[in-house]
Each structure stands twice: as C-alpha cells, then as structure tokens.
Amino acid sequence: MLFFPMWMSPLLVEAQKPDGSDSYGQMTEQLLPHGLLGLVIVGFFSHTMAMCASDANAIAAVFTRDCAPVVWRPRRAPA
C-alpha cells in the first residue's frame, strides 16, 4: 500500500520534469478533492514540525549528557 502511488504515478499522470519528481504533486492536485488537498499540506507541515521538535530534543539530550559537564563545573559532580 505504501508504494502504490510510486508505481501508479507513471500510469495516471504525465510528468513535466524529466525525472518525474513532480508526479506526486500532479496526482494530488488531480485526484484529491480540495479539502483533502489542504489536509495533505497541513500533514506535511505538522510532520515537519514534529521532526524539528524531535531533533531539538536529541540535541538537548546530547548537550546535557556530553557537553554540559565539560563546560559547567557543578555539573561534573555526580548527583
């Protein structure tokens, strides 16, 4: 089910770019109603924000565990 759009895009739309990278966008515009098109765009945005939050959490964890004890002397003492 996950690969269905990738396999069907050459059959359903004619790509404008030689590498076919615009076929997903064309399929979305042609096959989805406008309300669902908005939900797809909102889904892209929300997943991008969740990925950024996850990256920020990982960076904070690395800083707290690895960098803070080197930079900040009171953090070196075991709790």
Mean pLDDT score: 85
How many strands, what sense, and barrel or not for the largest sheet?
Answer: none
Q: Extract low-pLDDT stretches.
A: none
Percentage of residues in strands: under 5%
Task: Give the helices and strands, then pairings.
Blueprint (H helix, E strand, L loop, with lengths): L3 H9 L10 H9 L2 H38 L8
Describe the model.
Helices cover 71% and strands 0% of the residues. By secondary structure, the chain is mainly alpha-helical. The longest helix has 38 residues, at 34-71. The relative contact order is 0.07. The mean pLDDT is 85.
Descriptive key words:
3 helices, 79 residues, mainly alpha
What does this entry show, briefly?
This protein has helices at residues 4-12, 23-31, 34-71. With 79 residues, the protein is mainly alpha-helical.
